[in-house]
Amino acid sequence: MDSLVGKYFCEWTEVVKNPERRKAFQQFANTGETLENVEIIKERNQSRPTYWPKDSPAKEDFKGTKWTSLSWQPIIKASHFGDSNVPNGTSAAIKRGDTQLAIFKVRGKYYATQQMCPHKRAFILSDGLIGDDEKGNMWVSCPYHKRNYELKGESPGSCKNDDELNIATFEVEERDDGWVYLKLPPVEELDERLGTKKWMVKKEETESPFQGIDGLLKGRKSKRAAGSSSPERKPTLQQAVAVGGGCGGDKTGLDW
C-alpha cells in the first residue's frame, strides 16, 4: 500500500502546475482572456448555463456582410497548427475584440470563419468535423447539431443542409514571419456584427424544457376497484394482446 500511495499522481494536477500544458486548455489560442458564451444563471444556489434559446437560429446574412474596409492582421503563430499532414486538419478558436473566430488548417491550406454556429448560436465551429464531397468542396460540420458550412467551394459560408443559415468567412494566409494573418474589418465593426455579447444566449430568450412536467401528475389519484382498499390491478401487456386489446386500452382498461 505504501508503494502504491507513493507512486500516485494526478494528471490534472500536473497540467495545472505546468504553464505550457495549461495553454492547451485555454479558451482561445491567441490569448489567455476568456468570454462567457451563454448567460450564467443561479438556480438553487448553484450556477449553470441557461437553456437553449426558444427561437434559436440567427437568420442573418453573415456571408453577405459588406465591411467598410479590410486589412491584414497577424492573429496567431503558425506553429500552433503543427503538422499540416494531419488528415482531418487542425483548428483554433481565436478572440479579436469581443468577437470569436475559427481558423482551420486542412491539407496545408487555411480557412477562417466566425466561431458561432447560427443554428443554436453556439460558439463551437472550431471544434467542428471537417470533410469534403465528391466535387472537392470542403465543409465544417457543427459538432452539436450537424449544420454543414462550406469552407471551400462555389459559395463559402453557405449552409449545405439549412438554406436559412450561413456564416461569415475571411481570407487567411501564413507568412514568412511565422504568423497566420487574417483579413479583417476594424474591431468595432467586427464586434457590431459578430460580437459575443450580441449573440450569446440570454435567460429571457429561453424556455425550460421541463416546463409543465412538475405539475403533470399533481393531484392525480390511483384508480381503485369498488369496495377495495387496494389499487385496481390492470392487465399486463401480454394479457392485453391475448384478448385483442390495443395500445389505446379501450378493451383492457390500460392507461398509457
Question: What attributes does this structure have?
Answer:
256 residues, alpha+beta, Rieske Iron-sulfur Protein, four-stranded antiparallel beta sheet
Explained architecture:
It contains six helices and 14 strands. It has helices spanning 2-7, 11-17, 19-22, 187-194, 196-199, 237-242; strands at 40-43, 46-49, 71-77, 90-96, 99-106, 109-114, 116-117, 122-123, 129-132, 138-141, 148-152, 169-170, 172-174, 179-184. The strands form five sheets. The chain has a four-stranded antiparallel β-sheet. Strands 3-14-13 form a three-stranded antiparallel β-sheet, with no helix packed on it. A three-stranded antiparallel β-sheet has the order 9-10-11, with no helix packed on it. By secondary structure, it is an alpha+beta fold. A hairpin with a 4-residue loop joins strand 13 and strand 14 (179-184). The protein starts with a helix and ends in a 14-residue tail after the last helix.
What gap, in angstroms, lies between the N and C termini? 55 Å
Going across the biggest sheet, name each strand in turn. Answer: 4-5-6-12
Rounded mean pLDDT is 86
Please state the CA-atom Rg, rounded to the nearest Å: 27 Å
Fold-level CATH name: Rieske Iron-sulfur Protein
Share of residues in helices? 10-25%
Q: Write the element-wise H/E pattern from the N-terminal end onward.
A: HHHEEEEEEEEEEEEEEHHH
Number of domains: 1
Structural class category:
alpha+beta
The 3D shape can be described as globular
Compute the number of helices: 6
Strand element count: 14
| Corresponding CATH architecture | 3-layer Sandwich
The top-level CATH class is Mainly Beta
Low-confidence stretches: none
